[in-house]
Write a structure and sequence with these properties.
7-stranded mixed sheet; alpha/beta; 5-stranded antiparallel sheet; 449 residues; binds pyridoxal-5'-phosphate
Amino acid sequence: MTRAQELSEKDKRYVWHPFTQMQDWRQEDTLVIDRAEGNWLVDVEGQRYLDGVSSLWVTVHGHRRREIDEAVRAQLDRVAHSTLLGLANVPSIELAERLVSLAPAGLTKVFYSDSGSTAVEVALKMAFQYWRHRGRPEKRRFLALTDAYHGDTLGAVSVGGIDRFHEVFRPLLFDVVRAPSPYWYRCADAPDPASCRDLCLTALERLLDKHAGEIAAFVVEPLVQGAAGMITQPHGYLAAAAEMCRAHDVLLVCDEVATGFGRTGSLFACTQEGVTPDLLCLAKGLTGGYLPLAATLASEAIYSAFLGNHSDFKTFFHGHTYTGNPLACAAALANLEIFEADHVLERVAQRAELLGEELESVIVPLPHVGQVRRRGLMVGIELVRNRATREPYPATEAIGARVCRAARRHGVILRPLGPVIVLMPPLSIEPDEVRLLVEATGRAIAEAT
Ligand code: PLP
């Protein structure tokens, strides 16, 4: 038995993989990753694969970036973990200062947790408790979009709206006011993105008019609804929605777990529409793909509402064991420094333009490609059985999974979202790698459809 076979066999015997039908998994070849170099993953047999989805949207500047490696090693020589319950630590202080300086003006406080889901969970609980402190306990519901995804803990699942993931948990969830997602390609009533935006905004305003008195916050993924299939919002949607929330005294929570850290072309997506949310959720790319860390940034007004005497019980009673972990914060600081040192956002603009051109020439003409959606380096390729009628592939065909398996044979790691093929390469992707990514994806789509 080779080492690869042995590891694969043990994986199947002991590991339960996330979002995976293990009966299928046990029949398939297991790709076991051993190491990585830059934008490439290397398996235990030495085979190299371009990391086309940034190891699930986290790797920002490539794997094994010297500066981040060194920052983590240096922190290891000081302390790996100490708690934020009753103590402070150096990297968590420095990172909070840095995040506040980079975030949209007005977000002044940083609350740490460990994952995108917990960043959202924290925001929900903060918004809920904020209104209690303000003497408005009836503002206890949340408004969210259809097809939203905010993570897998129960609060995050409640505001999420992707039935194929979460239907089974419905009895455990709280009730949410649901606004339509501006998903133009699948909107029967809108002939173009601008009319889709206007229809969705009208519906949003109607819901706010009716329910604002009982709504704590509107929770939204700004510019791109990632897990729904990279649904790109029409220009102007976010700014108008933010304005409506303000007018109706409803807090705005921007979940930038997927869109944050340069993916859409700016450090944070909400700034492209001049929006400052009341609460901003960050995770995934925060440490450049090194360690689990999340942050919920809050406005001064929200933070201040929690101040009081001990006996007032206004404390935010929430915290995780690894909150503010020094190793993770050190990785995040080094990750953020690279943005400036390497002029990363300028490079993203160039790479995104090249990616757009390649998609246009290689992917758009393919007969089963319904729509190619892109914001910066976030791409969703929606596959359809019939392009003219937009007839979707039935879920039983698992078309996305088939394409991604084919892409692997061409040396590229992809991961689908149903019938949508996601491309989300590291921001450090080089021009020849952009071409390879798109060509391999095109070949895989042609083979599997
Ligand atoms: N929010 C958004 C917008 C996401 O895309 C995700 C994950 O894909 C999450 C929250 C959950 O993050 P995590 O998987 O780190 O809990």
